[in-house]
Every structure is written in structure tokens, then in C-alpha cells.
Amino acid sequence: MSFLHLSLCSAFTMSSLGLAFHRTHLVSALLCLESMMLSMYIALSTWAIESQTPSSSLTPILMLTFSACEAGTGLAMLVASTRTHGSDHLQNLNLLQC
């Protein structure tokens, strides 16, 4: 395993562990999700460069598009929850009270 693959796997693992264990604020959860998407984007980009097939070069762009949509949706949810609940603590958010 090369150093690049090891660092990408460790970045993905650390961000997923951060998402699992440090879920106090919605901002920290969104940052962990964005770091997961960033490591997946870099991994897909290096895979497309290494394989040198024209069909795999579109995959990182599609992943980046979905990541931008996810970030926009997450920020909209952050603003909406901060306006309605007064903070971004995940303990204050309850889907059954909607």
C-alpha cells in the first residue's frame, strides 16, 4: 500500500470516527462529512489517473457535484435549526417534535 492510499484511508477512518464519537454540534458533524467526501474525491481522482480510462474520469466530477449539493443542504439545515432551536446542538434536535 502506498503512502497516498494509506493517508487517504486514515483520513476517511479518522473522519468517520469523528462523526461517530463527537456528535455534539451539527457543524462538527458536517465538517466530518465534508472531510469524508474530500478523501473519497481525492481517492477517486487518483484512481482515475492511475487507470487511464476515459469512462472513469467522469466519476470524480460527479462525486464533487454530489458533495457540493450535500454541503449546501447541510448548511441550509444548520441555518434552519439555529433559527428555530437557538443552537446547533444535536441533542436539541428531535424529529418527533416537528
Structural features, described:
The protein is mainly α. About 75% of the residues lie in helices and about 0% in strands. It contains 3 helices and no strands. Helix 1 runs antiparallel to helix 2 (about 25-50). The longest helix has 27 residues, at about 60-85. The protein starts with a helix and ends in a 13-residue tail after the last helix.
Give a nutshell description of this structure.
The chain is mainly α and 98 residues long.
What is the helix/strand order?
Answer: HHH
Low-confidence stretches: none
Mean pLDDT: 85
Strand content: under 5%
Helix run count: 3
- The shape, in one word, is elongated
Highlighted features:
Helix Hairpins, mainly alpha, elongated, single chain, 0% strand, 73% helix, 98 residues
How is this fold's topology laid out?
Blueprint: H1 3-21, H2 26-51, H3 59-85
